[in-house]
From TrEMBL:
Protein's name according to its UniProt entry: Methyltransferase type 11 domain-containing protein
UniProt cross-references to InterPro entries, sorted A to Z: Methyltransf_11, SAM-dependent_MTases_sf
Domain Methyltransferase type: 48-139
Membrane-spanning segments: none
UniProt GO MF annotations: S-adenosylmethionine-dependent methyltransferase activity
Length: 201
């Protein structure tokens, strides 16, 4: 049996970017369209989509009139996004060290991003810094104990990821002075599969 390589986000997503959008249905199944209920009116809002990937959220938010900046560590994922929209500003960068001044965004979104952080505090702290007073962070936390196997041209890989308990995510956000405004725990039967939080600065 060939060994499954565990790669960093940059290496893993660069390698699998071309096929990422085929997973859209799978990703949506963890959200069950609930994100859109929480986002509200977007027209004219300045939004940072952190860990934007191929722009699954960014493209829709832009179509709804938001001014979207899409940031990701993977240049190949951003290339896929750029094929879909020329209205979105893309940036290669690290969500744990955001290349922006403080207090410039109305909303920071992060879907399926924190699963790649051992400790999401650094990203939350950075999101807090770049949000305007009263701005909001929308973050999702997938229940994923083992990263899925991904077939690539260079063999089967997994991308490094970490499991976070929902109560831990709540605790961290509150300790950083966010107020949790809304929370949806998406369930399948008895089990939670995704936590979606809107937290206000
Ligand atoms: C599972 S994908 C989610 C993409 C998109 N948000 C979505 O919901 O489809 C995770 C994305 O986070 C990016 N990522 C991982 N670590 C990052 C970091 N430190 N800073 C910015 N992006 C990161 C990956 O490159 C990848 O594109």
């Amino acid at each position: 049996m060939p060994k499954v390589k565990i790669l960093s986000s940059v290496a893993g997503y660069d390698l699998s970017a071309a096929d990422y959008d085929k997973k859209e249905k799978y990703l949506n199944s963890f959200e069950k369209n609930k994100i859109w209920l929480l986002l509200g009116y977007l027209s004219g809002k300045k939004i940072l989509d952190a860990g934007t990937g191929t722009g699954r959220l960014a493209v829709e938010m832009s179509k709804n009139g938001a001014e979207v900046t899409a940031l990701d560590v993977s240049s190949e994922m951003l290339k896929q996004l750029s094929r879909k929209s020329n209205k979105i500003k893309t940036m290669i960068g690290d969500a744990e060290c955001l290349p922006f001044d403080k207090e410039i965004f109305d909303l920071v979104t992060a879907a399926f991003l924190i699963v790649h952080f051992k400790d999401p505090s650094r990203f939350f702290d950075e999101a807090y810094r770049v949000l305007k007073d009263g701005g909001r962070l929308l973050v999702t936390n997938i229940n994923q104990k083992e990263p899925p196997e991904i077939k690539t041209k260079q063999g089967v890989i997994k991308i490094e990821s970490f499991y976070h308990r929902p109560e831990k995510i709540r605790e961290i956000l509150q300790s950083l002075a966010f107020t949790i405004e809304k929370e949806i725990i998406v369930k399948e039967g008895e089990n939670w599969i995704n936590q979606i939080i809107v937290a206000k600065k």
